[in-house]
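Support request from a user on the community tier.

User writes: "When I paste my structure tokens into the form, the page sometimes reloads and wipes my input. The last time it worked, I copied everything first. Here is what I submitted, just in case something in the input itself triggers the reload:"
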């Protein structure tokens, strides 16, 4: 597909990157019903990712965008500064091929983009403007998988923040990171405190059913996350490990997520192949990372839950005794991130190390294959920065109770995945 590159005036680009008001004058009416809508939602107020989000948007604006009168719709909500109003903006090409924008909704200053209230407010505005449509939601921010609000800054206190590296924007990092920057959904600094959102609250805040949900954030590729959103989204794209600061690759996003031939699997594949090529080449700004990438059909997870429930019961004692060193991790070593213990391990490898039989493994892999529509991982992830080799990749991470805490166990019992499978009793 030919990628249409267009010159974007710097003033307009700056306005759009900050969710400024456009003057396209587009009239929303019943004709907007039944559209194909992609929403790029970024919660990056004072969390070190603002510069990366701006670069993502520049890539999108330089490429293919829907036409003004099209039923293909691209919307941006970029919550970059909590002290100012923020805007939900439609971005498209006008009849002369120039980029145009129009504001659908304004969020007042002082609110957190990483809050159930604002997420619901913004997405409700989308649903009202484009009723009965097919929606894809991209959520970009820091994230912490299935873990509870405050897990990254409550269970383990934040150290003093440091400045973002050159070119990454002017925000400070609330999370200590040694080495290349990663993005880990929902940490923002609002009025001197950190705002996050629990996974269950996030799922409840989404007012429409989604064709696809993309987490451009770290550690969201867990079975717990996929299960929690299975009533919200048909498909999901995410990463069990961290996501590099530059995030997913948006060069061909219109073809992969908004065209009639859209494919979340191709979006997940583009992300993986970009970082794989950089990793194998060993040169360039993104050579130090590697990647894990998964696309999953959340509607087809019942067989996986059934198999896991039986295996968790059978191997409960063995799982409870597993040392962390024996299981494939998706978290870097202490000293390179803000944890002393990792909480994300490969689902299949937990059960392999617990002693499941060959026939049980075949059954588990069949259940994984039924719901996972794409998966790929490099041979290692950030090996020079406390990372890990990847010797097995099921496509999903999971909590390992033997490496957890009583507080995390209590919270885990409230998750839909645990209610369905009884990993933690």
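"...and here is what came back when it finally went through:"
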């Amino acid at each position: 597909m030919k990628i249409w590159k267009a010159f974007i005036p710097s003033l307009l680009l700056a306005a759009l990157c900050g969710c400024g008001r456009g003057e396209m004058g587009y009239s929303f009416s019943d004709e907007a019903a039944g559209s194909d809508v992609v929403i790029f939602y970024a919660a990056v107020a004072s969390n070190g990712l603002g510069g990366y989000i701006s670069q993502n948007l520049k890539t999108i604006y330089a490429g293919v965008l829907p036409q003004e009168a099209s039923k293909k719709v691209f919307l941006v909500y970029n919550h970059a500064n909590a002290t100012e109003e923020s805007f939900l903006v439609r971005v498209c090409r006008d009849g002369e091929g120039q980029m145009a924008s129009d504001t659908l909704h304004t969020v007042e200053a002082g609110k957190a983009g990483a809050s159930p209230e604002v997420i619901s407010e913004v997405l409700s505005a989308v649903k009202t403007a484009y009723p009965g449509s097919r929606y894809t939601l991209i959520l970009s921010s820091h994230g912490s998988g299935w873990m509870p609000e405050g897990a990254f800054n409550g269970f383990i206190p934040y150290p003093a923040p440091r400045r973002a590296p050159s070119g990454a924007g002017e925000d400070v990092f609330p999370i200590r990171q040694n080495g290349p920057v990663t993005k880990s959904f929902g940490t923002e600094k609002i009025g001197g405190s950190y705002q996050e959102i629990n996974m269950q609250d996030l799922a409840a805040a989404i007012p429409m059913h989604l064709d696809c949900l993309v987490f451009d954030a770290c550690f969201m590729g867990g079975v717990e996350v996929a299960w929690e959103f299975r009533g919200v989204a048909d498909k999901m794209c995410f990463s069990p490990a961290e996501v590099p600061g530059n995030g997913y690759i948006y060069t061909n996003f219109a073809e992969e997520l908004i065209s009639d031939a859209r494919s979340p699997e191709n979006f997940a594949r583009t992300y993986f192949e970009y970082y794989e090529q950089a990793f194998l080449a060993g040169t360039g700004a993104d050579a130090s990372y590697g990647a894990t990438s998964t696309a999953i059909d959340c509607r087809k997870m019942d067989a996986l839950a059934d198999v896991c429930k039986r295996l968790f019961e059978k191997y409960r004692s063995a799982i409870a005794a597993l040392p962390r060193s024996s299981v494939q991790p998706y978290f870097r070593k202490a000293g390179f991130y803000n944890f002393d213990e990792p909480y994300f391990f490969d689902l299949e490898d937990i059960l392999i190390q617990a002693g499941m039989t060959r026939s049980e493994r075949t059954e588990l892999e069949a259940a994984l294959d039924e719901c996972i529509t794409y998966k790929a991982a490099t041979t290692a992830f950030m090996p020079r920065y406390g990372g890990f080799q990847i010797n097995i990749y099921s496509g999903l991470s999971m909590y390992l109770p033997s490496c957890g805490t009583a507080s995390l166990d209590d919270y885990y019992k409230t998750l839909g995945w645990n209610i369905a499978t009884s990993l933690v009793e």
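Agent notes: The reload is a front-end session timeout and is unrelated to the input. Confidence is low (pLDDT under 50) at residues 1-29, 154-179. The two ends are 52 Å apart (CA to CA). Escalated to web team.
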